[in-house]
Amino acid sequence: MTLEDSSLQNQTSADDSSSPVSASPPPLPPLFSSSAATVVITMDSEDWESCSDNEVYLEDRNEDDDEEDCYSSGSVSSLQFRKDISKARWIDDLAMAEVVEKKGKMWVTMGIVRNGNTYCSIEETLFLVEIGALHVLDGNDIHLSLKELYEKLSDGKSGCDWELFEVYRHLKSLGYVVGRHGVPWSVKGQKIKSGTCSLESSQESNELLEPEQENKNSIMELFDNMQITEVAPAFHVYLPNSKFRKSSPGDPSFILCMSRGGPPSRVEIEAVERKHGAIPLKFCHVENGRVSFFSFAKVELPVLP
Amino acid sequence: MKARWKGKASEAKASADPMSKIVSQLQSSLIDTGTCGLLSSCSVLIEVDDELADLLNRACFGRPRITAQKDKQWFQLDMEETFYLCFSLKCLKVIGEDVSTKSNEELWEYFKSKKPVFPISYKAYSHLRHKNWVVRLGLQYGVDFVAYHHHPALVHSKYAVLALPEGDNDLNGRLRVWSDVHCTVRLCGSVAKTLLIVIVNSNGLGSNSPSCLEHYTVEERTITRWNPEQSREDQRGLQNQTKEGII
Question: Measured between alpha carbons, how far is residue A158 from residues A161, A180, B220 in Å?
Fold first, then answer.
């Protein structure tokens, strides 16, 4: 709660002084300081295959350094200036935004296509608004502020929540292509259903939707139930790939599951595995803005001579 | 992640001298000599000649005790090692405090009383030993066991092993909270081991007798951290991560 509150506070004050169109967008933490299209990551180019003993240790140290960076960089970097700003209209019934004006390349990997129209989920909308690449209007053509969009995230109707959004933002800011589990990128000749968001189009997606709504009923209950693990597939993640096409996305690199309350049990892991066949799973843990990914891969140690 | 052999000759040395052969030599030698162990709290002490001492060392059972005694050597076995030699390999007898030989059932009860999680940890230990992995206690790495491809003198241990019972009666208590997962994976990474969890399902059979053990089922999983910063453009990197448990 405190995290959300403070973010809301920050954004409110920032929004008062500058609209997202302005050249000085609100200051943001370093993670999303660059857009998905322009992000440059300094990477260790060491070949994992040819690691000698020393390098194994070296890698670990690199990992440490990475984490140190995340911890210690208190400096707030600013966003690049954007002159291409797309426009979308928020549709409450869908809990999604319909894109009315597309600018930039991000639409190749963002938004779902239904009947020729592109719709943005709340996490996509927020991600783009945060980096200043999207201008969102409501039904009466009135500009929706970041604050109002954060409120839409927290009202639980969008099938997303703050933790899921953080995961989404983390992967997106590194250039991964991320889609919601159970929501096809494009469906030919099918209109988007109204009522709730398009997550309705798949039964499985309710796994993502329902717990949120329940939790919203009582915040206190949410905290009481913190120890109860909930494991649900949340996102389909594709590696950064310039050839990605919504019309033929192929199998994701992995399905990302959110495991709340605690690590997933074997039974929970197996239940998700059984449903998704050969696609690898990763499990994600978010705490106070820290996003971590683990795989719990089934193995069979060989019988040695 | 391949086996990390210590020096170039080690791999050849290991393949010339497979662990299965060393262990079966140890087994027949223990039977031939009619070796008896002395139960002392959570350990079992055995007195052996030079040949057996060599085999115990090479098979990685027990720790040698340095004593002034010249002709014979003393070894100290832990509970899992003892039970493996007594129950699985049937090559060791253990004498209790009343100077009578303990049956496998009596030993089982005794070890359970000393270590409630013994049925689970023993199943994990014997499961890996049966596959000819060398298994040693892993306390110094904060886990139950470490598993080696061969003798620790030749190769670094590949896996840090936690033996976890399936279901709610988790006596081990590990990895129940995210902080412990982070902690364990991080520690294993810093000593270049992969965290292996051996999940033991007693299939509702309880642990009244060691004969239950053969009906216990075992599942192996590795837990690894995936670093999105390092895996962006490397297709193989991602696949390696998911296949990491496979050699």
Answer: 8, 12, 38
Residues 6+ apart with CB under 8 A from A228: A261
Contact A258, A284 (CB under 8 A): yes
CA A120 to chain centre: 12
CB contact under 8 A, B242 and A280: yes
Long-range Cβ contacts of A247-254 (<8 Å, 24+ apart)? A247/A113, A247/A185, A247/A186, A249/A177, A249/A179, A249/A185, A251/A278, A251/A279, A252/A179, A252/A279, A253/A280, A253/B238, A254/A279, A254/A280, A254/A281, A254/A282, A254/A295, A254/B238, A254/B242
What total of structural domains would you count in chain A? 1
Burial class of residue A149 (count of CB atoms within 10 Å of its CB; 0-12, 13-18, 19+): buried
Q: Give the dihedral of Cα atoms A262, A266, A268, A270; nearest 10 deg.
A: 150
Catalytic option among B110, B148, B159, B216: B148
Which ipTM value was assigned to this complex?
Answer: 0.88
B148 is catalytic: yes
Domain that holds residue A148: 2-35+79-294
SS3 (DSSP) at A123: helix
Cα–Cα nearest to B214, from B199, B202, B224, B228? B202
A127 in a domain, yes or no?
yes
- Residue A52 in any domain: the answer is no
Instruction: Flag whether A148 is in a domain.
Output: yes
A189 to chain B, closest Cα gap in Å: 34
B156 catalytic per annotation = yes
DSSP annotation of A261: S
Q: How confident is the model at residue B60 (pLDDT cuts 50, 70, 90)?
A: very high
Q: How many residues does chain B have?
A: 247
Is the whole model's pTM more than 0.90, yes or no?
Answer: no
DSSP assignment of B18-35: -HHHHHHHHHHHHHHHT-
**Neighbour-count burial of A226, counting CB atoms closer than 10 A to its CB (0-12 exposed, 13-18 middle, 19+ buried):** exposed
Interface test with B, best of A241, A299, A300 (most B CBs within 10 A): A299
Interface check for A299 against chain B (CB to CB < 8 A): the answer is: yes
Distance CA A249, CA A238 (A): 9
Counting Cα atoms < 13 Å in the Cβ hemisphere of B212 gives 19
Give the closest of B222, B227, B233 to A299, CB-based: B222
Amino acid B218: pLDDT: 97
Does A273 fall in a domain? yes
Domains and their CATH numbers in chain B: 9-242 (3.40.1350.10)
Instruction: Give counts: helices (H), strands (E), chain A.
Output: 8, 11
The 10s digit of each residue's pLDDT in A87-145 is: 999 999 999 999 999 999 999 999 999 989 999 999 999 999 999 999 999 999 999 99
